[in-house]
């Protein structure tokens, strides 16, 4: 049996030597006391504007990813991590390089993506990065890899030049150093166990008993497995403690979402808007106001500037939106929107309700809708806002776009329209309809001069959000195309402001006068069977006038 013990001892010692060597290499060469396995520094460059990992490259979560990047040409560099849909929107249509494979110790496989070489928005100024670093010299990030599709992006800090960088990647696994030491100790224990089996003392032979009971068989010699069992048990325990604690887990999340904006970012955005808006208003700068506004709101304010210049009006007195409350729905794609409700300096009678939109990940936030509900009006709670789904539309008194179209039909048809019954009365809207009816009645008194008068209202695509109460908050812009035909032999022209800002009174038209007005309405659409649609605000701005 000594031969069996010796063979087992040699095998155990060899296994211990291999295990111990592996633990020593892992502890003192691969991982180190910081629990991080670094790959060697690698040179990366791109003919495009960025270098970005593909989402399937980071398909396991748990460990911490370390990325160190420095520019090869001394220029400031940027490195950041973001959700894949943000990065995809940011880089869409732009030439860049995809990092598609990383092999240890260091082998990076890249793939060039064709596109435009136009500059990108400076990455450090964008608010959707999960973590980021930018500046001169080596820039480093440490990111606990999260479940879901994320990308690492490396680029020039200005977003205008192709990146040329030296990159070092590392993976930090919790307790990896201790686990490696445990493996080393395990190897030493296995070696010790093997030596024990090889050199262990033989037992002294024991003289057989002189008398053997009938039917009793003397015990057979057995392999002394007690020490071996103890070694196996210790091995199993150490393997469980050291090896399983830091195994990365495969991703289970296929698609990510996030709030459109954080409260802090939204407050900073509104503060920036206040500053730019007041500067633009003081000089009526079309260029400046276009940096913070978009959509129908920008068109309205540019028209307002035109009217003020024509009338030589005094500059608008400076004001700011204060103490904003933010309603930020969750999105997983672009465009993104959020709502703000704020006070107005010097105006206690009204509040401000704003709709903000970001078209792509690289474009700025712009205010696209502005309304002024009375301070006494009950506004829906903005906490927990979310985009309206098709299923939500079925639970409401009317789906948001249907409500917008019905409002347009109501205004086109007048106060006696069949659609009027779906809405609660609104003083501003009623005043508009009364003015339209009065103007038509006056022109009807001169049939030879004025022909057919038309006000055709159409609803633009609306933005709507569900509130916690089950109602929907809808932002609706209506385009009012007005025309009045000229009687035979007559010429018509605009005779007073604001129309004369677009068509001087000296200009006459033989066919018809035309005018375009934008009307903004904020609707509160209740659940089905819970009442009528409330027109929270209704405001108008002429944006063009002329004729043919």
Summarize the structure in short.
This protein has 548 residues and is an alpha+beta fold. The chain has ten helices and 25 strands.
**Beta-strand residue fraction:** 25-35%
* Oligomerization: single chain
| Helical content class | 25-40%
* CA-based gyration radius: 37 Å
The overall strand count is 25
Largest sheet, spatial ordering of strands: 8-7-3-11-6-9
Count of individual domains: 4
| Shape, per Cα inertia axes | elongated
* Distance N to C terminus: 115 Å
The number of helices is: 10
Report the average pLDDT across residues: 88
Indicate the low-confidence ranges by residue numbers: 211-245
Largest sheet: 6 strands, mixed
* Secondary-structure content class: alpha+beta
Protein name: DUF8094 domain-containing protein
Pfam families: DUF8094
Organism: Kribbella antiqua
Keywords: Membrane, Transmembrane, Transmembrane helix
What are the key terms here?
6-stranded mixed sheet, alpha+beta, Nuclear Transport Factor 2, Chain: A, Jelly Rolls, DUF8094, 548 residues, 6-stranded antiparallel sheet, 31% strand, 4 domains, DUF8094 domain-containing protein, transmembrane helix, 29% helix, single chain
What this model shows, in words?
By secondary structure, this protein is an alpha+beta fold. It folds into 4 domains: about 1-30 and about 175-200, no CATH class; about 40-170, Jelly Rolls; about 260-385, Nuclear Transport Factor 2, Chain: A; about 390-545, no CATH class. Helix content is about 30%, strand content about 30%. It contains 10 helices and 25 strands. It has helices spanning about 1-30, 85-90, 175-200, 225-245, 265-285, 285-290, 295-310, 390-395, 400-415, 425-445; strands at about 35-40, 40-45, 50-55, 60, 65-70, 75-85, 95-105, 105-115, 130-135, 140-145, 150-155, 165-170, 250, 260, 320-325, 330, 335-345, 345-360, 365-370, 385, 450-460, 465, 470-485, 510-525, 535-545. It has a 6-stranded mixed beta sheet. Strands 20, 21, 22, 23, 24 and 25 form a 6-stranded antiparallel beta sheet that branches. The longest helix has 30 residues, at about 1-30.
């Amino acid at each position: 049996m000594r031969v069996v013990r010796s063979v087992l001892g040699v095998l155990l010692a060899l296994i211990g030597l291999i295990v111990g060597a592996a633990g020593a290499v892992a502890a003192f060469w691969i991982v180190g006391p910081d629990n991080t396995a670094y790959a060697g520094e690698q040179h990366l460059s791109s003919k495009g504007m960025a270098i970005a990992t593909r989402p399937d490259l980071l398909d396991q979560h748990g460990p911490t990813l370390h990325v160190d990047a420095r520019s090869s040409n001394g220029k400031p560099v940027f490195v950041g991590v973001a959700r894949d849909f943000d990065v995809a929107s940011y880089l869409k249509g732009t030439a860049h390089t995809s990092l598609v494979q990383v092999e240890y110790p260091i082998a990076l496989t890249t793939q060039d993506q064709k596109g435009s070489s136009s500059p990108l928005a400076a990455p450090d100024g964008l608010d959707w990065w999960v973590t980021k670093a930018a500046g001169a010299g080596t820039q480093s990030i440490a990111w606990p890899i999260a479940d879901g599709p994320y990308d690492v992006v490396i680029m020039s800090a200005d977003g205008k030049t192709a990146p040329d960088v030296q990159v070092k990647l590392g993976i930090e696994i919790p307790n990896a150093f201790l686990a490696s030491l445990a493996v080393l100790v395990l190897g030493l224990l296995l070696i010790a166990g093997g030596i024990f089996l090889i050199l262990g003392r033989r037992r002294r032979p024991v003289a057989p008993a002189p008398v053997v009971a009938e039917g009793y068989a003397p015990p057979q010699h057995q392999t002394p497995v007690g020490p071996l069992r103890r070694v196996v048990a210790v091995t199993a325990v150490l393997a469980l403690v050291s090896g399983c604690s830091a195994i990365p887990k495969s991703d289970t999340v296929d698609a990510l979402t996030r709030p459109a904006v954080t409260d802090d970012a939204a407050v900073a955005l509104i503060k920036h808007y206040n500053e730019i808006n007041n500067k633009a208003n003081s000089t009526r700068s079309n260029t400046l106001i276009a940096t913070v506004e978009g959509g129908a709101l920008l068109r309205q304010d540019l028209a307002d500037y035109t009217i003020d210049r024509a009338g030589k009006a005094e500059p608008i007195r400076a004001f700011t939106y204060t103490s904003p409350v933010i309603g930020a729905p969750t999105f997983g794609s672009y465009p993104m929107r959020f709502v703000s409700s704020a006070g107005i300096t010097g105006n206690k009678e009204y509040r401000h309700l704003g709709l903000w939109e970001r078209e792509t990940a690289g474009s700025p936030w712009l205010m696209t809708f502005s309304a002024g509900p009375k301070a006494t009006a009950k506004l829906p709670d903005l906490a927990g806002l979310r985009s309206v789904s098709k299923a939500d539309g079925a639970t409401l008194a009317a789906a948001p776009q249907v409500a917008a179209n019905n409002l347009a039909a109501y205004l086109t048809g007048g106060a006696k329209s069949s659609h009027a019954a779906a809405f609660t009365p609104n003083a501003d809207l009623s005043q508009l309809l009364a003015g339209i009816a009065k103007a038509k009645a006056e022109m009807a008194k001169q049939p030879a001069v004025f022909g057919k008068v038309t006000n055709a209202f159409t609803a633009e695509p609306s933005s709507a959000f569900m509130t916690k109460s089950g109602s929907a908050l809808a932002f609706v812009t209506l385009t009012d195309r007005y025309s009045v035909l000229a009687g035979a032999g007559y010429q018509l022209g605009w005779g007073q402001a604001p129309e004369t800002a677009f068509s001087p009174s000296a200009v006459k038209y033989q066919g018809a006068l035309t005018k375009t007005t934008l009307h903004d309405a904020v609707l509160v659409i209740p659940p089905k069977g819970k009442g009528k649609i409330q027109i929270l605000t209704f405001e108008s701005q002429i944006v063009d006038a002329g004729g043919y």
